[in-house]
Amino acid sequence: MYTREAIERAAEVGLDLVEVSPNADPPVCKFLDVGKFRYEAQKKANLARKTQKTQELKEIKMRPNIDDHDYDVKMKNIVKFIEHGDKVKCTLRFRGREMAHQELGLELLNRVRADVDEIAKVEAFPRLEGRQMVMVLAPK
């Protein structure tokens, strides 16, 4: 039906002519109350926002010469974050002469990767950024 005719019909009924899908050929329009349509669309958007899961980036900071118990505590936190569905950024900070032994830091991050291999995949492999080495893990 022609646009003018549709607008006249909508006015007779007391509703508005709303274009639902403008990209279709021909464009699809409906007779409805604009206020009610906006309200329903807003309710639908709020419900979608409420049910969606946001994935956060959690950060775990370590040092190259970390003690075994401290390492276990950090690993427990990494596992908890990954099981919760968050990504984990493992940051290894070098201080002073530790920069001369970057291979120790790489070994530590490879150990972390091996320990969480069943539940996580490496999204960003270990790389040096200034005085710290960074690796990002994501849930499988």
Description:
With 140 residues, this protein is of the alpha+beta class. It is 42% helix and 30% strand. The protein contains four helices and six strands. The strands form two sheets. Strands 3-4-6-5 form a four-stranded mixed sheet, with helices on one face. The protein has a two-stranded antiparallel ribbon with strand order 1-2. The longest helix is centred in the N-terminal third of the chain and has 18 residues, at 34-51. The model has no long low-confidence stretch (mean pLDDT 90).
Q: How are the SSEs placed, and which strands pair?
A:
Elements: H1 3-13, E1 16-21, E2 28-32, H2 34-51, E3 57-62, H3 68-83, E4 87-93, H4 102-115, E5 120-129, E6 132-139
Parallel strand pairs: 3-4
Antiparallel strand pairs: 1-2, 4-6, 5-6
Instruction: Please summarize the sheet with the most strands.
Output: 4 strands, mixed
Low-confidence stretches: none
N-to-C series of helices and strands: HEEHEHEHEE
- Categorize the overall geometry: rod-shaped
Radius of gyration: 28 Å
The strand order across the widest sheet is: 3-4-6-5
Briefly, what is this?
The protein has four helices and six strands, in the order αββαβαβαββ. With 140 residues, the protein is of the alpha+beta class.
Tags for this model:
4 helices, 140 residues, alpha+beta
